[in-house]
Automatic annotation (TrEMBL):
Domain of life: Bacteria
Protein name: ABC transporter permease
Protein species of origin: Microvirga brassicacearum
Keyword Membrane attributed: yes
Location of the ABC transmembrane type-1 domain: 94-307
Keywords, comma-separated and alphabetical: Cell membrane, Membrane, Transmembrane, Transmembrane helix, Transport
Ranges that cross the membrane: 12-31, 100-121, 142-161, 181-202, 242-270, 290-314
GO cellular component assignments: plasma membrane
């Protein structure tokens, strides 16, 4: 276990270093932030002063070296637009994104697992065909199109749910959340469901496949021979077996939920990290873009590490030290 942790940490640092180089070079090549930040009628002296104040008078290598040195000391740079530390802007938006991601993850499991169980226990039935067709649509339809359809149906036509914003937000245990009031929950339903649609399809198919693979196995026949009810066999023995691949895939996909929240947050004007990223790209706010991507990569690394731990707990035969 110790060897696994040390190896994972060294790999993570290498990934972060390579990511920082790629991101910094990529955002540097997009354009010159001064063209957006400075008024067109600014004098040459004002323009030069702004370039020097933002450190844009240095070469790419010098700028990256300054960024890397500051990052090693916990400073990911100051926003060109807001003149605040980039990490503060991201951390202020992170609770909204994490709330959206966790609710989407909950919906994907709460809806996907029962649908997969029902479909797997009734193969080739009308229910099975309906669920599988629905999962294909969940995989195939673009996320932004699904979001616009949800807004058109539930906000414009029916008027049941709001289409943008976060609603009322309260502070619980030092964290701002919209889950404490109906206003906040009603604003959360559409974006969370939109973000969860792809994962619902994924969990449904994983669960169905696991049920179909496990039901003919000997341990199920032995459980039936012992006189256990079908419900207990499925809910205890079969479900425990199929949860291992589900936890692994969904855990890794949770990072994807955070990353793909960019589209959902933009469509529903959800004030999270993804919307901050889009706004920063439009304004060429380099420090915020670089800091955001490094934070997301770090979240991916942490999530993958936690998934490995959970995987070993669900299946004691797995040893992280040897797997690494």
């Amino acid at each position: 276990m110790t060897v696994f942790i040390i190896r994972r940490l060294s790999q993570s640092l290498l990934v972060l270093f390579i990511t920082s180089i790629i991101v910094f070079a990529g955002i540097y090549a997009i354009g010159n932030p001064i063209d957006i930040l400075i008024a067109p009628d600014a004098t040459f002296a004002e323009r030069e002063q702004a370039i020097k104040a933002l450190g844009l008078d240095q070469s790419l290598i010098e700028q990256y070296g300054t960024f890397l040195w500051n990052a090693l000391h916990g400073d990911l740079g100051r926003s060109f637009v807001f003149n605040q530390p980039s990490i503060d802007l991201i951390l202020n938006r992170m609770p909204a994104t994490l709330e959206l991601a966790f609710v989407a993850l909950f919906l994907s499991l709460a809806i996907g697992i029962p649908l997969g169980l029902w479909s797997g226990l009734r193969p080739n039935s009308v229910l099975d065909e309906t669920v599988m067709t629905g999962s294909i649509l969940g995989f195939s339809l673009p996320n932004f199109w699904q979001g616009m359809m949800l807004i058109m149906i539930f906000s414009v036509w029916l008027g049941w749910l709001p289409s943008t914003g976060r609603g009322e937000v309260d502070t619980v245990l030092g964290m701002r959340t919209s889950l404490t009031s109906w206003s906040g929950i009603s604003h959360l339903i559409l974006p969370a469901f939109n973000l969860a649609l792809f994962k619902i399809s994924l969990v449904t198919r994983l669960t169905r496949s696991g049920v179909r693979e496990n039901m003919p196995l000997d341990f199920v026949k032995f459980a039936r021979a012992k006189g256990l009810s079908e419900r207990r066999i499925v809910s205890v023995h079969v479900l425990k077996n199929i949860m291992i691949p589900i936890v692994t895939v969904v855990g890794v996909e949770f990072g994807g939920i955070i990353a793909f929240a960019i589209v959902t947050e933009t469509i529903f004007a959800w004030p999270g990290m993804g919307k901050l990223l889009i706004d920063s790209i439009m304004r060429l706010d380099r420090p915020v873009v670089v800091a955001y991507l490094l934070v997301v990569v770090t979240l991916f690394i942490v999530i993958n590490f936690v998934v490995d731990i959970l995987y070993s707990l669900l299946d004691p035969r797995i040893r992280l030290g040897s797997a690494a």
